[in-house]
Design a protein that fits this description.
alpha/beta, five-stranded parallel sheet, disordered N terminus, about 475 residues, binds zinc ion, TIM Barrel
Amino acid sequence: MAMKTLRSLVPLVALGLTAITASAQPGPETIIRGGEVFTAGGLRSADIRVVGSTIAEIGSGLAARGASTREIDARGRLVLPGGVDPHVHLGRDRLDDYTSGSAAALAGGITTISNFGGVGAGSTPAAAVAQAAADVDEQAIADFIFHPIVSDPATATPETLAELAATGQTTIKVFMVRPTYDANAAGFVSTMHAARETGVLMMMHCEDAALVQITSERLLAEGRGGLENFPDARPVTAEVAATQRAVSMAEQTGAALYIVHLSSEGALRVAERAQARGLPVYVETRPIYLHLTRERFDGPTPGLYIGQPPLREQSDVDALWDGIARGTVHVVATDHVAYTREQKLDPAQNVVQHRAGMSNLQVMLPMLYSEGVGDGRISLERFVEVTSSNPARLFGLYPRKGAIAVGSDADLVLWDPEETRTIRNEDMLSNSGYSVHAGRVVTGWPTLTMRRGEIVYRNGEVLGAAGSGELVRRDRWDGPPF
Ligand SMILES: [Zn+2]
């Protein structure tokens, strides 16, 4: 009911009404004054009244209602909805926990992030959520969503997925690239049926396990197992084959499919053909596939660039930017996972055994803005879509998250479109202590981040307290959201 009300209000803002007032809500008041505000209709000069944790009013010349009203000067700033990154790995067993991961995200303009956690043999996805909820309560500053990782499809049945959806978390993740996938392939088809029946969205890592295994083992046996050969160990063919298979599973079961970190033009074309046939196939890509190419592996530090799938060719990079511009790539998410530089450069690694992934939460938005919007590759509207409103819609958070609208959570970023900075290791808040993008010069940077009405980051300093973040309840998958 409340959701419907919010939806119907959004177009009114676009129609140019000067002010829309929600019913009185308790809590302190903040007016964000004079910014260029991104609402459903695009950018408009406006003030935003925040009452408590939500946006109460958007309009011109808003008057303070009490002596205690806090004012934030947003002149010269864009005011954007907080970023939503549905692909982040954190935890007590990792270098970044919910606190340091939150800090990096908030400093980078991202207010809602994910975590993943495995479902043990004989356990359930809902049990994994319960464990995560305790950690969020204690450690989170950003708001969170959670995705159970299903390795054994026997743990993801109509019953256990209905139980999962009842917890308010409505996704699972499946790794086609793991050796256990093919041994359980029939079970995962049944799981996809169960996902459709229960309103759960399946996120799939699409690399073919057999092709990756044999290709990398052969390289190793030939004495070419060094990390400089990592891109050859996980070829595009493996990504295309798995993407095709996942699309066919979605087509046959009637389920929606969310493809995580798609990296190649070949796999994108598979997804685009499915989309053209009207299938609910959604594509996420990742900053490293937009900003880096496989030539990095010819340099002295190939270990820094290890991610699964690997870096590809410039033609793949161009295809992914073009996919964002055309709307066939729906989400840009970090796949953030923190390792130190030393861990990433550990000489014991090879194409089979290695540490995959890197930290990226703090610089994803500035880099995408600078090289996307700034360089004219994508519009500001697309930038907001792929980093906020689309993931909010796909993951059952919209319009509470992913929108600047009356009634939405006051998750806001003040963005200085003129500020030019060099990305520096010493500024990074992730415990990884470095950025793979250090030395890049970018224009456009977040100066203030608000999460549910609270200023949690301002000019280099994280202000929010551990434990103030929430595990956000999400809607079930209910058909294509756009
Ligand atoms: Zn991941």
